[in-house]
Specification:
3 domains; Immunoglobulin-like; Jelly Rolls; alpha/beta; TIM Barrel
Length: about 625
């Protein structure tokens, strides 16, 4: 691999890039990668944070557009009450130290009933004890903030980030003091026409600090990136990058004690080292049936980190997907990042991740989960590693993003890179997806092809896909679903979302006779199909109505019969495991702000269709 490869890993693209119009656009550097950050020693900042809404953004600008005054700057390093006692004439229209508090991480939807549909700017603040030490660097790391974040330490802006589902970290070494430190985060959940995703979606926009916040202290020269995997050539490969003033010429090593394997060398002038070895005979490859993970220790100078890594290969042969060289059919389901419960707040802990994935693995007899429509948290992907579930991971390039906007493309590229850099060591992830249900146009094609090229530069060990649309034709008196999206040529695996019988008036009994046609010769995943049902609503008539459990169950019977006739089908991830919040769904009896296509309700009540899919997957698993 070349130095340019490493450049791509740590900077999304610091050279000029050809944009949709043919013009060039420079991209800002990524924050530090801090690979395996969730397993590094850290100070966990979960717990109570004070919050204050700012619907008119007075903490950002004054009445006439200028800088905000001292009475509005929620990020200032000041105890308002103490200041007012000392200066009774001062005017403050906030007091973060005495504002309401909430337990983070979570979304503000559940901080107060008054915030259920609040979208806009929210300020969070807490005091943090620190003890800075010479020869070290301290990073403030966020698992995710939805959507845009401005981060302040002791009144100083330390960085901004856009994107609601990927991690970022800022070096706060020079801003910390011994003792108490004031950390303030301005969180803006507002989606714009040029954001990713745009304002109109089919899921809840959970504003807030929705994943873990931590302080991570490392040596002044530290391991920023460590990628250890089984290459397509069957060799164990390691790619490391150090950051810091002594990154060059450092001796480093990768050790897998359970295999008796150690590899290492000396970093080059850019702090980079890469190597490969033949795998020991004792190596057990990761698979859904045997999700073997190894403790991997990486050391360089004064720094060390560990990770839990599985080793496997993934490839395509004709219309088959090959895991470890053997054909595998992906028996899956789609999943939003919402925990089970009547009032979710996007709090995905290892326990809540296990509860969701156990429904897939053990009860549906699945081996695959599509984590839609954005990167899910590390708790979910690590749990998939541990439990043995193959993962599709995607970024929220959803429906109608601003295809012609260079800034939108730059935001999407940054999100994609942050997602890949965080999760390249997760054996469970085999598919990177660059989009969902994006109508064909020249601008869209160029946009997505740029993302596909980025995936291939950042990770040559996985497959690339996208959830596409298809055309419907009548051929010889038969309904034919034609997959001819021009993007198919650029993908490893085709995927299509299809809702015949739900968003169409087709008789369900007609679905098994639908034909599917593709000239690509590539494998197909039915990435979505589904029908709404309100758990407990029944219609026992011969022609049950939509939204009944009976209609949803028959929809699954007939759609699965149709799927069985697709000769190039390699997997499916029906929509969806669990009912999820969606403000666009407002039928007062059946929806009430929930998309009801789940096979279980939001609280886990199983619908009839759950058993239909479980039986189908059990039969497939037996063959």
């Amino acid at each position: 691999m070349t130095r340019f490869f490493w450049h791509c890993l740590t900077m999304i693209v610091a050279i000029y890039l050809a944009m949709l119009s043919g013009a060039a656009q420079a991209s800002a550097p990524l924050p530090p990668v801090l690979t395996a950050a969730d397993l590094r020693p850290h100070t966990d900042l979960s717990g109570p944070w004070n919050w204050s809404i700012d619907p008119y953004r007075v903490g950002v600008s004054g009445f006439h557009g200028g800088a905000p005054g001292p009475g509005s700057r929620r990020y200032d390093d000041v105890d308002v009450e103490t200041h007012l006692i000392a200066n009774p004439r001062a005017l403050f229209e906030y007091d973060m130290d005495r504002a309401p508090s909430a337990i983070l991480p979570s979304s503000w939807l559940n901080h107060s009933p008054l915030l259920r549909h609040y979208q806009g700017l929210m300020w969070y603040q807490r005091m943090v004890e620190a003890d800075p030490r010479a020869g070290t660097r301290t990073f403030l790391r966020f698992g995710a903030v939805n959507y845009a974040a401005a981060v302040y330490v002791n009144g100083a802006l330390v960085g901004r980030h856009e994107g609601g589902f990927t991690p970022f970290a800022f070096d706060v070494t020079e801003h910390l003091r011994s003792g108490a430190n004031r950390i303030t985060v301005g969180v803006d959940s507002t989606a714009r026409d040029d954001s990713v995703p745009p304002p109109v979606t089919d899921w809840e926009n959970y504003g807030g600090i929705t994943r873990a916040v931590s302080l991570i202290t490392v040596p002044e020269t530290y391991i920023d990136d460590a990628w250890v995997r089984l290459g397509n050539d069957g060799r164990i490969k390691a790619s490391l990058r150090l950051a810091g003033s002594h990154a060059a010429g450092q001796r480093l090593s990768v050790r897998i004690a359970a295999l008796g394997l150690t590899m290492g060398g000396v970093s080059d002038a850019d702090g980079v080292w890469q190597g490969s070895v033949a795998p020991p005979r004792a190596l057990r490859r990761w698979s859904p049936g045997a999700p073997t993970l190894y403790d991997v220790e990486v050391t360089a100078g004064a720094d060390s980190l560990r990770d839990r890594i599985g080793f496997r290969t993934i490839a395509v042969r004709g219309s088959q997907i090959l895991l470890n060289g053997q054909p595998i059919f992906l028996r899956g389901i789609s999943l939003h990042e919402e925990e089970l419960g009547a009032n979710p707040s996007r709090i995905i802990t290892p326990q809540s991740a296990r509860a969701l994935l156990s429904l897939v693995k053990h009860d549906l007899h699945g081996n695959f989960v599509r984590l839609a429509h954005y990167p899910h948290g590390e708790a979910m992907t690590r749990m998939a590693d541990e439990m043995g579930l193959i993962v599709w991971s995607e970024i929220p390039v959803y429906w109608l993003v601003a295809w012609d906007n260079p800034g939108t493309l730059n935001a999407a590229r940054r999100m994609l890179a942050e997602n890949i850099l965080r999760d390249r060591n997760r054996a469970s992830i085999v598919l990177w997806s660059v989009g969902n249900e994006t109508p064909v146009s020249d601008a869209r094609n160029a946009f997505l092809r740029t993302l596909i090229a980025d995936v291939r530069s950042l990770d040559d060990s996985r497959l690339v896909t996208a959830a596409l649309l298809n055309r419907r034709e009548e051929r010889g008196g038969r309904v034919t679903m034609v997959i001819d999206d021009p993007l198919v040529d650029d993908l490893d695996v085709m995927a299509v979302n299809s809702y015949n019988g739900w968003y169409s008036d087709d008789a369900l009994a007609a679905l098994p006779d639908f034909d599917w046609l593709s000239a690509s010769g590539k494998p197909l995943i039915l990435s979505e199909f589904g029908a709404d049902a309100l758990a407990g609503f029944h219609d026992a008539g011969a022609d049950p109505r939509k939204f009944s459990e009976e209609y949803q169950a028959d929809y699954y019977r007939q759609t699965l019969a149709m799927a069985d006739r697709i000769p190039f089908l390699a997997g499916m991830s029906p929509w969806i495991l669990k009912d999820f919040r969606s403000p666009r769904r407002q039928h007062p009896l059946f929806q009430g702000g929930w998309n009801r296509k789940g096979l279980v309700s939001e609280t886990g009540q199983r619908k009839q269709a759950f058993g239909i899919l479980a039986e189908h997957y059990a039969r497939r698993a037996a063959h």
